[in-house]
Amino acid sequence: MFEYVKTWYERKFSDPHSVTLLLLLLALMAMFYFFGAFIVPVLIALVIAYLLDWPVAHLERFGLHRFTATIIVMLIFSGLMLTLVIGMGPVLWQQASNLVQETPHMIEQGKSFLLHLPEQYPSLITAEQVQSVVTSVESKAIEFGQVLLSVSLTSLKDVVAWLIYLILVPLLVFFMLKDKLELVTSAEKLVPKQRRLILQVWHEMNQQIMNYIRGKVFEILIVGTVSFIAFTIFDLRYAALLGVLVGLSVLIPFVGAALVTIPVAAVALFQFGLETQFWTILIIYGVIQALDGNVLVPLLFSEAVDLNPVFIIVAVLFFGGLWGFWGVFFAIPLASLVKALLNAWSTKHDEHAGEKNQL
C-alpha cells in the first residue's frame, strides 16, 4: 500500500508545476473555509463583474475607452436593478405578506382534507397514518415559525450588512471592470514561475465561469418570466411571488425544481381544489421544467457544462454543505474545476510518459 501511494505521488507530483497547482488550490480552499464570511461582498462583486465584462468588452471593440465603457454599463445595470426593485419589490412584499397570513388557514384546510381521506379510501390509508402525518406537519410548521422569529430578531443586523453591501459591491464591481488588466497582471506576479498547469486550468475555467454566470442569469429571467405569465393566465394567486421562486429555483440543479413544486402545488390546491385548474397548472409547471432541463439548459450551457447529472448532484450536496449558498451557486463550475484539475494532472502525466517513450 505504501509503495502504491509513493508511486502515485511520484507520478503525479514529481513536476514542480503540479506541486504549485496543488498548493494554490489548498491555499484558496483554506481562505474560503476560514474567511468565507468576510469575503461575501467580493464574491458578489466578482459574479456581477463576470456578468458585465461581456458588454464592456463589446463596447471596447466599438472604440470606447474601457473607463467610458465601464461607466456606461454600470449606469445601465444600476438603472435596470433600480427599476426592477421599485417595480417588483412592493408587489412581492405584498404577496409574501398575504401568503404568510393565509398559511395557517391553508394548513387547517390541508389538515381537514387529510383527515377525510380514510373515509374516502379506507383500503389505502388509515386514520392513524393520517394523524401521524398531521402531527409531523404541525411540528415542522412550529419549527419554521421559530426560524422566522429568529430571522426577524436579527433583521436589524442584516439590514446594516445589506446597506454596507450596497456601497461596497458597486465600488468593487466598478474597479474590477475598469482595472481588469492591472488586477490580472498583479495576480500573475503573486503566482510562482512554475505555473504551466495553473494557466492551463485557468484558461479552461475562465470562459466556463463567464458562460455559466451569464447563462444562469438568462435562465432565471426566462424561466421566472414564463412561469409568471403562465400562472397569470390561469389566474393563480401569488403569481409574481411564485414566478420569482420558480426562476430562483434553477440556482439549485434538479433539487430546486422539486422544492418549488411544493408551494406551487399547495397554492393551486387550496385555490382550486382537485379541479381541472389544479391539474392544468401542475402540467404546465411540469412542461416548463421539462423545457428548461431539455432545451434551455443545453442551449445556454453547452460550453460551460459537460458533466454527468450524478456528478452535478454530488457537487451540489458537497459544496453546498461546505460553503452554503455560494457552494450551491458555484457547484457546477466547482465540479468543472475538479474535472479540469484531473485533466491537467493527467495531461502532465501523459506528456511525461510521452517524453520517456521518445527517449
Automatic annotation (TrEMBL):
What species is given as this protein's source? Answer: Pseudoalteromonas prydzensis
Membrane-spanning parts: 20-52, 64-93, 159-177, 217-234, 240-270, 282-301, 307-332
* InterPro entries to which the protein is assigned, alphabetical: AI-2E-like
Membrane topology, as annotated: Multi-pass membrane protein
Protein name as it appears in the record:
AI-2E family transporter
Question: One Pfam family of this protein, by short name?
Answer: AI-2E_transport
Subcellular location(s): the record lists:
Cell membrane
Similarity comment: family membership: Belongs to the autoinducer-2 exporter (AI-2E) (TC 2.A.86) family.
Q: Tell me the organism's taxonomic lineage.
A: Bacteria, Pseudomonadati, Pseudomonadota, Gammaproteobacteria, Alteromonadales
